[in-house]
Amino acid sequence: xxxxxxxxxxxxxLDLLSLYLTPKGxxxxxxxxxxxxxxxxxxxxxxxxxxxxxxxDLDGWEACKEIRKNWDIPIIMLTARSEKNDxxxxxxxxxxxxxxxxxxxxxxxxxIDAVLRRQTGHPTFxxxxxxxxxxxxxxxxxxxxxxxxxxxxxxxxxLLLRNHxxxxxxxxxxxxxxxxxAPTEDRTIDSHVRNLRDKLRKTGFPVDDYLTTVWGLxxxxxxxxx
Length: 226
Description:
Layout: E1 3-7, H1 11-21, E2 27-31, H2 34-41, E3 48-52, H3 60-70, E4 75-79, H4 84-92, E5 97-100, H5 105-120, E6 125-128, E7 131-134, E8 139-142, E9 145-146, H6 151-161, E10 168-169, H7 170-178, H8 186-202, E11 211-214, E12 218-221
Parallel strand pairs: 1-2, 1-3, 3-4, 4-5
Antiparallel strand pairs: 6-7, 7-8, 8-9, 10-12, 11-12
C-alpha cells in the first residue's frame, strides 16, 4: 500500500483528500503544517507528498525546497493559485507536479498515479495498432488524431490495453477504477464503455474488433494476434 503524506493547514482539506484517496488503496498520513511533515519524514517514510502552498510558518514552496535537501520523494503542490509564475516557481523548487484548487478528484488521482509511475520507471506509453496512450499527459490519439477522453475513460482504456484477452467484470472495474464495488451501478461501466467506443470509432479505429462485451460478465480487449 502506497503511503501519501498530506500536508495542509486546513483540517477540512486533509479530511477531503483522505476521503478521496483511501478507497483508492492509499494510506493517508495527515499533517497540519510543513514543519510537522518534515519532522515526520525524519522518522518515517512516504511514497509521495501532497503539499499545500499557502500555509503559515513555512509555506509550501520553502517546505518543498527543504524536503528536496534530504529526500527524493515525489511532491505534488496543491494550491488555489494558478498563475504561470507560481507553477514555474514550484517546479523550480523541486515539485514533480502542480494542481490547483478546487481540483477534480479524478484528475488528482490520475496525476498521483502518473508521478508514481515516473518515480518507479514504469513505461508511460501504451501503443496498439496506431492507438497511443501517454500515461503522463493522459493523451489518447490514433494515427496522430487526438481523442478527447475523461480521466475515467482513460483509466478504463489503459487497464484493458495492459491486459489483452483478460475478462474484467463490471464489479472489478468499479473497484479498480472507481474505488468501490457496487453491483447496482453496472450502468456506470456500460455508459463509459459506450462513450469510449463512440470516440474511438469517430477516428476510424476499429474498436469493435477489440473492445468486446463478454455477456453476463463484463468486458475484455481481444488481441487477435495473440
